[in-house]
Design brief:
The chain has helices at residues 8-14, 19-46, 49-65, 69-83, 88-105. It is elongated, with a radius of gyration of 14 Å. The chain is built from five helices and no strands. Helices cover 79% and strands 0% of the residues. The chain has one domain: Four Helix Bundle (Hemerythrin (Met), subunit A) (Up-down Bundle), CATH 1.20.120. The protein is mainly α and 107 residues long.
């Protein structure tokens, strides 16, 4: 099992201690991250650092706001590398990110 590093206490604070709201936010993140991940993969296949970086940024922001620390760390590294004009970290970390997002879907 891949560790999401989920700080659920932080996430609950962000959702004003409303469990139902938190679940709704997690469901929205599940949907958006699926689309963003597909676009990230497409950007990598096209050699498009801007597209890849933008989608990594989108996943990173949502993960950070919900306390999914491991997803945030991986996507931050991908985004930074893309900003430097490289896709090497994105290519290397893509399987890890995919595994994390599979775990996310199980919540």
């Amino acid at each position: 099992m891949t560790d999401l590093g989920w700080n659920k206490d932080f996430a609950m604070e962000q959702a004003a201690d409303d469990e139902e709201l938190l679940q709704e936010l997690v469901e929205i993140f599940k949907e958006s991250s699926t689309t963003d991940f597909a676009n990230l993969k497409q950007g990598i296949s096209k050699g498009d650092t801007a597209m890849s970086g933008s989608n990594a940024h989108s996943i990173k922001g949502a993960a950070a706001s919900l306390g999914f620390e491991t997803i945030r760390e991986v996507t931050a590294a991908i985004e930074a590398d893309c900003r430097n004009g490289s896709l090497s970290v994105a290519t290397e970390q893509l399987p890890e990110l995919e595994a994390l997002l599979v775990e996310l879907q199980k919540l």
